[in-house]
Design goal:
Length: 430
């Protein structure tokens, strides 16, 4: 299969897979024949949206909810015992520093808050909102979690009108912003590091720190977040087979976020609990608009290599191109481009550059940077390299070669048995 066709199929198929049934089958929705059961395909406005502790999206309206992007509505008190009536706002707590709170689901009703874990109401709840979240107003419109790395600290964004109350989980302090440019959010949803404000039957994607909206919005939620007759976003696409996968770069940043790149899209693969979904590379790294050849992370920075150019981004709450870049590969790394693959192992200061059947090691603490060691490999035409706590994976087509360490890779003269990329790694179809 030609590379261009493979890239195109990969984007479409992975997108279809990430939404699973919502984008594949336009099924008749949610028991709409009964007037007592709401029909989300009728263009309703959700009261609240949140993922549960397992990553399943919950959509609330009145005394009903839907679990996932498809399926029938059910009474919410069958899912959350002790809950009665409509929910104003909901979010899943992200607080890894406190396991007693992490992954708990908080539901808000007027001036009260409920806390659930595994669908069980926590002892002592419901409480007054101020008891758990001092400084947060009552009668909220929406709420959404915002982990550190996407916000400055582990936070919750509470919406009321055009005011956004940013609650710092660790310090229990609130800073209030006014985002008058953003529609009044009646529910909010974080999905695969992206933030969505729902208003009416539409949604608008926004940046969680600035509230900035980029792209053409609003968009109809029925095309993206549910399965409805006559609506869809590439709905007849079949999942990509793992045997057709071809990566072009891979890396894990200092925050533990793992990225796979192919064509003009990238995939976050550490977010598998919430699903797999490709996004344009320009959404994360807006200056890189024609794909990448290699990527590596070092010292809270991400290096994207394309041809003979290197783009270096500061990897904080969002990626920011460092002033003066791009530069040539020769200027930055002391070698001529292009580069087939690159990787840096955790807590190491050497970038391993693969070109053809050669691996060139470059000390990232040295100035100027020059080749520290040059080694032949028993492999060639490597597409991507990734190093983690469990060793090194070198990707070639739909397979990868595993090495326990860079030392074993450097000493090896016979390639190990290749292993196939699996659905568990990136959501393709085995």
């Amino acid at each position: 299969m030609e590379l261009l066709v493979t890239r195109s199929l990969y984007l479409c198929a992975l997108f279809a897979l990430s939404l699973a049934a919502p984008l594949q089958d336009a099924a008749v929705e949610d028991g709409g024949s009964s007037p007592a059961v709401p029909d989300r395909c009728a263009g309703i406005e959700f009261d609240a949206i949140t993922p549960d502790e397992k990553g399943t999206a919950l959509f609330f309206i009145g005394d009903h909810l839907w679990t996932g992007f498809t399926g029938p509505a059910q009474l919410s008190n069958l899912h959350f015992r002790g809950l009665s009536g409509a929910v104003n706002a909901a979010f899943r707590m992200h607080n890894t520093e406190n396991p007693d709170d992490h992954d708990h689901i908080y539901l808000f009703q007027n001036d009260k808050v409920y806390s659930y874990f595994n669908q069980n109401l926590e002892e002592g709840y419901p409480k007054q909102i101020q008891e758990d979240f001092p400084g947060v107003p009552t009668h909220l419109d929406a709420a959404v979690e915002c982990p550190k790395g996407e916000c400055v600290t582990d936070s919750v964004l509470f919406f009321k009108g055009h005011d956004v109350h940013v609650y710092d989980i660790a310090t229990k302090t609130v800073k209030t912003k006014t985002w008058s440019h953003l529609p009044s959010c009646k529910s909010a949803f974080r999905w695969l590091e992206h933030y969505y404000c729902f208003h009416g039957h539409n949604f608008t994607r926004f940046h969680p720190i600035s509230g900035e909206v980029t792209g053409t919005y609003p968009k109809d939620a029925r095309h993206y977040f549910m399965s409805c007759p006559n609506f869809g976003h590439g709905g007849d696409r079949k999942p990509l087979k793992c045997s057709d996968v071809k990566l072009e770069a891979a890396t894990t940043d200092d925050g533990g976020r793992k990225y796979f790149f192919t064509g003009r899209v990238y995939l976050r693969v550490d977010t598998h609990r919430d699903g797999f979904h490709p996004f344009p590379i320009t959404r994360g790294w807006k200056e890189v608009n024609d794909g990448v050849d290699a990527v590596f992370s070092y010292s809270n920075r991400m290096y994207l290599i394309k041809g003979d150019q290197v783009y270096i981004y500061k990897a904080d709450a969002h990626f920011t191109l460092i002033e003066g870049y791009p530069k040539t590969v020769k200027e930055e790394l002391g070698i001529e481009g292009p580069v087939d693959a690159a990787f840096v192992c955790p807590n190491q200061h050497t970038v391993h550059i693969i070109q053809g059947n050669m691996m060139r090691n470059i000390d990232l603490t040295a100035t100027p940077r020059v080749i520290d060691r040059e080694l032949p490999l028993p492999l060639s035409d490597i597409d991507a390299g990734l190093c983690g706590e469990n060793g090194i994976n070198l990707f070639k087509g739909s397979q990868f070669y595993h090495y326990e360490s860079a030392m074993i890779l450097a000493a090896g003269r016979i390639a190990p048995q290749p292993q196939a990329i699996t659905s568990a790694m990136m959501g393709c179809q085995d």
